[in-house]
């Protein structure tokens, strides 16, 4: 699978893992260290920096999240999508032509350019326990004050994916960009239930089980969580998510959050999966 595949309006970036070791969270995405030009496998894709530029504008500039907290360890293992818009390019001349060297007629160079306007990420399992009601955390960086009991939706055993970092720059917030991003991410998860799982190496899986706090499973059957800011719960309800009142609320970077869930039907994709048809069943051994 390629690292980044760009369609007309949406860029898709698969988990970058160790490539993001080069990302400096204390600096804005426009001022990241230069990658080793001789080794393209070390490069941080432009698509990821585009995602971070949107997050910087929305979360850091608008909502006062400290820049160094905006990038976290989950970014390394997450899938990201970035939405773009075409805007007029600024030229010194209203018309620019490119001369052809092989006798062809001059042709007009595009007078528009694409800019990143929205982003979302999908974090695969495993995840730490849910935050305790009334607790305080850095943005999505859960530590301490974590609940050990189940919620009314999550029994601590079922694996889930997490959508987050949904952000759209102000000028495009009434253009349906949030819905485009949410629908795109959910459609990918629904159609690729095994691809959003961690690696399937048995030793690695066993290690991840042990690391997934208090035995939280990492097999995934369609459960999706968002940590929603209280003020945008109604937006997530439009996308099919329901608030889990048993989780209460907590603060991330001083902003009150609640847990919201949705269950996707992934049965059809599991049945037609090459792994399923090959007789291997679930990568974790469940039917």
How would you concisely characterize the structure shown here?
It contains 8 helices and 12 strands. The chain has 287 residues and is an alpha+beta fold.
Task: Please tell me about this protein's structure.
It is a single chain. This protein is an alpha+beta fold and 287 residues long. The protein has 8 helices and 12 strands. 23% of the residues lie in helices and 24% in strands. The protein starts with a strand and ends in a 10-residue tail after the last helix. It has one domain (4-90, 109-277): Gcn5-related N-acetyltransferase (GNAT) (Aminopeptidase, 3-Layer(aba) Sandwich).
Superfamily at the CATH H level? Gcn5-related N-acetyltransferase (GNAT)
**Rg for CA atoms:** 21 Å
Q: Please state the oligomeric state of the protein chains shown.
A: single chain
Mean pLDDT over the full residue set: 81
Please state roughly what percent of the residues sit in beta strands, choosing from under 5%, 5-15%, 15-25%, 25-35%, 35-45% or over 45%.
15-25%
Unreliable stretches, pLDDT < 50, 5 or more residues? 92-110, 276-287
Taken from the alpha-carbon principal axes, the silhouette is globular
| CATH class type | Alpha Beta
CATH architecture: 3-Layer(aba) Sandwich
Q: What is the number of beta strands?
A: 12
GO biological process, one term: UDP-N-acetylglucosamine biosynthetic process
Domain N-acetyltransferase: 38-265
InterPro entries: Acyl_CoA_acyltransferase (IPR016181), GNAT_dom (IPR000182)
GO molecular function: acyltransferase activity, transferring groups other than amino-acyl groups
């Amino acid at each position: 699978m390629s690292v980044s595949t760009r369609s007309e309006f949406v860029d898709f970036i698969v988990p970058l893992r160790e490539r993001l070791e080069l990302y400096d969270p204390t600096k804005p995405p426009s001022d990241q260290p230069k990658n080793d030009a001789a080794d393209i496998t070390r490069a941080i894709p432009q698509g990821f920096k585009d995602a971070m530029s949107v997050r910087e504008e929305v979360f850091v500039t608008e909502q006062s999240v400290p820049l160094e907290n905006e990038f976290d360890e989950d970014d390394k293992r997450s899938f990201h999508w970035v939405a773009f818009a075409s805007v007029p390019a600024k030229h010194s001349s209203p018309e620019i032509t490119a001369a052809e060297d092989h006798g062809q007629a001059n042709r007009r160079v595009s007078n528009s350019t694409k800019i990143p306007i929205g982003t979302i990420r999908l974090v695969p399992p495993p995840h730490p326990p849910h935050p305790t009601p009334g607790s305080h955390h850095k943005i999505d960086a859960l530590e301490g004050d974590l609940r050990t009991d189940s919620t009314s939706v999550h029994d601590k055993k079922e694996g889930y994916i997490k959508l987050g970092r949904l952000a759209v720059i102000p000028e495009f917030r009434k253009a349906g960009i949030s819905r485009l991003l949410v629908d795109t991410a959910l459609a990918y998860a629904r159609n690729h239930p095994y691809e959003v799982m961690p690696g399937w190496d048995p030793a690695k899986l066993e290690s991840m089980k042990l690391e997934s706090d208090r035995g939280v499973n990492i097999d995934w059957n369609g459960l999706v969580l968002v940590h929603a800011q209280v003020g945008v719960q109604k937006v997530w309800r439009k996308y099919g998510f329901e608030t889990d009142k048993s989780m209460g609320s907590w603060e991330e970077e001083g902003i009150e959050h609640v847990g919201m869930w949705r269950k996707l039907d992934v049965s059809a994709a599991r049945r037609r999966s090459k792994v399923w048809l090959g007789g291997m069943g679930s990568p974790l051994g469940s039917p």
